[in-house]
Amino acid sequence: MTNKVLISVCIAVFAIIFQSCSDRDYYDPTKLPGYVAPNPSGLDYSTSHNVRLDLNYDVANGVISTVDFYTEYPLTKTGSLRTDITPIARGINVAGSTELSRRIPSYVDKLYAYSPNLFVPLVSSAKITNGIASFQPEAISVEPANTTRAGNAGDLWKRASIYELKKREDFYAATSGGNFKYDIITPDYQSNIPAEVMTHIGNTFGEYERIPLTSEFVRDATFTVVKGSKNNESAKIYLSILSTGCDQRNSLSYFVYTGDKEFSELTKEETAKLEVITLLQLANSNNNYFSHMKIGITPGNYIQLLYKNENGQFVEDFPVGAKIGWRLNANGFDEANFTVKESEVRFSVPVWNDNKWGDQDYQGGTDSNYTIQFQTADNKGNIYKCFGFEDKRYNSDEDYNDLVFHVYSDPADGLSELPEVKPEDVTITESYKGILAFEDNWPKKGDYDLNDVVVKYQSDVTYIAKAGNTDDATAQKVVDTFSFVHTGATYRNAFSYKVNISPASISSITIFDENKNIQKDYTTQIITDGDGFIIDLCPNVKGVIEAMTDGEVKVPQVYTVTMEFKDGAVKQNYFAKNCAPYNPFIAPIEKPGVEVHLPMYLPTKRAEKSYFGTEDDRSDGGTMWYVSGENIKFPFAIHLSDATSFRIPKEEYDISTTYPNYLKWVESGMTSYKDWYK
User: Fold this and answer.
1) 348 or 367: which carries more pLDDT confidence?
2) Rounded to an integer, what is the distance from CA 466 to the centroid of its chain?
3) Residue 219 has pLDDT above 70, yes or no
4) How many other β-carbons are positioned within 10 Å of the β-carbon of residue 17?
5) How many other C-beta atoms are found inside a 10 Å radius of the C-beta of residue 138?
6) So what's the pLDDT on residue 14?
7) Cα–Cα distance between 327 and 346 in angstroms, integer?
8) Cα–Cα distance measured from residue 500 to residue 513, given in angstroms and rounded to the nearest whole number
């Protein structure tokens, strides 16, 4: 064979061999077992994201309201709060001060905000876009409830009002859009309702929050003129609607008596002589949130009541000793004729209410009371005397906020004293939950089964807004419960976590070992780390739980950590950004200096930095930590946000074997299959 032929044959054979090797990826280093690309993957493997919650409430700065966030519409068909769902987040909103944000599971793309406070929308909704949820009020549509009771005060309940203080043209004001709204065009008196007054009332008589019949506020709501001006002879009376939490177009009238008796003592002949005066054909406020109740009066716009004197004239001055009672016509507004139609009525005088239906008779008892009466004060000590109506009892929520108004007198102390709604701190407890799973072979990739340490947690944080304070709410206390439910590890791993809150903000920390019924004060053992501190919770997970063949444990090891904060030290939003699971990590005892954290979470000062960037780790020591190469699809630890259960991955099999959608989630860049673990 010639040399030229031999060379040709060799080249051909080499080409065949090369092609064969190429087909089997022998020469593609990225396909070799154990290969890790030189560049970090850049994936944070996060199952949650920080969402800014813009409530957009049209309410005065300083009004404090609690708010619950749901992933489903939170009301039933009748308008009550559903009991089959729980909020995914909660908080306190101080209008003008609070910037709410929360860690929300990534699979959630829409939220509903619910608040029982009378002065903010009951339900708002928002789509989450680019980390922002901009809420807009939802128009509440409910099925009509049965109202079957009427009044029995002689002919007083049958007669339509004889005198109307205002006419249709006094209310309908043109808007910029060429439409009309129902509001008093020229108020007889105007005053801004202070934010703290709305806070006191709105949180005391919240929507669907039942007021017991034994409450001191549930009472005959008669107002009595006890002091006057002009040589103490008379007083002027004004009324402003504050809120209407009802789905009926109610009408409001009043009547006056100047004799020695109480209204409840009058005979039928005496009640027949009372003048029924229409105050509001439609007793509604423009902050009503029901879909068919879009028109109403602005709180702070007042209408003056008139008194019919002995000469039959309607005058501004009410004599000292005059008693003022109220009549509500349930759904009594006749919009077509702008008048009060005959309908079922509710009186502020309990014994005038006939509460009979079926075989039951509540006439004259406490159950006949449809009204509350109270007073509260603003920060300057000015007193606001107020009134509330429940427009139905049968199938009723009994919250007495279907009509809430303020009665103002000149002089300011011209009306009788009432039970006081005192300023109270507003508190709410929010719960976080989830599951943490760790791979302890770091910086090697190991088997990626993520079952070496599995921890469930629940965190209950209490926020507080101080009464009369217009600053943002603060974190008061947090109770964290960590349950160690599995260990598939060979190593003995300690479990700790770093809290990114200054130790100077902490007043106390206690750790309770529920299995051994041992509690210890951890306050003096705080380990400072940068701007935060470390809590070493469990020195050896393998030593405190006993694994079973089905992946669970006989008895989970449970620790409860209670942190109390100094008054006002930690703002609500700051804590929400640094809440559980904090910065959790495991540390194998056999590998000093090794810490395994969630991707993109900083190591503590105790970590040995020389491990980073070795073996399968591609941390850059700057912006990316605990990440593998770009072709590796498994982290060294993962947090399953809002999860309560976790099917333990099979030993020595990567997590995608147990959860097939895991790889689809990773390959989509965490944009699809976000609920792969659900």
Assistant:
1) 348
2) 17
3) yes
4) 11
5) 19
6) 39
7) 6
8) 23
- List, for residues 515-565, the tens digit of each pLDDT value: 889 999 999 989 999 999 999 999 999 988 865 555 556 678 999 999 999
Q: DSSP 3-state assignment of 592?
A: coil
Higher pLDDT, 576 or 1: 576
Residue 218 CA to residue 246 CA, distance in Å, equals: 18
Question: Is residue 412 predicted with pLDDT exceeding 70?
Answer: yes
**Pick from 246, 248, 249, 240: nearest CA to 335:** 249
Q: What is the DSSP string of 156-219?
A: TTTSPPSEESS-GGGTEEE-TTS-EEE--SS-SEE-PPPHHHHHHHHHHS-TT-PPPTTSTTBS
Per the document, the length of the chain is 678
With the CA atoms of 441, 444, 449 and 454 taken in that order, what torsion angle do they form, in degrees rounded to the nearest 10?
40
Bridge partners, 91 (sequence order): 67
Task: Reply yes or no on whether the pLDDT at 357 is more than 80.
Answer: no
Nearest-angstrom CA–CA distance, 543 and 75? 47
28: burial class by Cβ within 10 Å (0-12, 13-18, 19+)?
exposed
CB 655 within 8 A of CB 449: yes
pTM for this prediction: 0.87
Structure tokens belonging to residue 475: 């974190």
Tell me the mean pLDDT in the region 27-35.
Answer: 55
The number of angstroms, rounded, from the C-alpha of 255 to the middle of its chain's C-alpha atoms is 41
Give Cα 268 to chain centroid, integer Å.
50
- CA-CA distance, 253 to 345, in Å (whole number)? 10
Q: What are phi and psi of 508, to 5 degrees?
A: -165, 150
Q: Give me Rg for the CA atoms of the chain.
A: 34
The three-point CA angle 166-167-169 to 5° equals 120
Per-residue pLDDT averaged across 487-499, rounded? 93
Give the residue among 241, 217, 224, 294 at the shortest CA–CA distance from 118: 241
The beta-strand segments (E) located in 390-526 are: 403-410, 426-438, 453-465, 474-486, 493-499, 506-513, 518-521
Q: Closest by alpha carbon to 580, among 401, 435, 422, 397?
A: 435
Look at the block and give the residue holding tokens 């190593």. 491
**Residue 152 to residue 347: CA distance in whole angstroms:** 9
Residue-level pLDDT at 177: 65
What is the number of other CB atoms lying within 10 angstroms of the CB of residue 192?
9
601 or 79, greater pLDDT: 601
Question: Which residues fall within 8 angstroms of residue 252, CB to CB, at 6 or more apart?
Answer: 278, 279, 280, 283, 326, 327, 328, 329, 403
Structure tokens at 103: 């860690």
Question: What is the phi/psi pair of residue 196, to 5°?
Answer: -65, -30
Quote the CA–CA distance of 558 and 480 in Å, as a whole number: 10
- CA 91, CA 473: separation in Å to the nearest integer? 9
Parallel, antiparallel, or unpaired for β 163-164 and 277-280? parallel
Rounded distance, CA 432 to CA 429, Å? 10
User: Three-state DSSP class for 667?
Assistant: helix
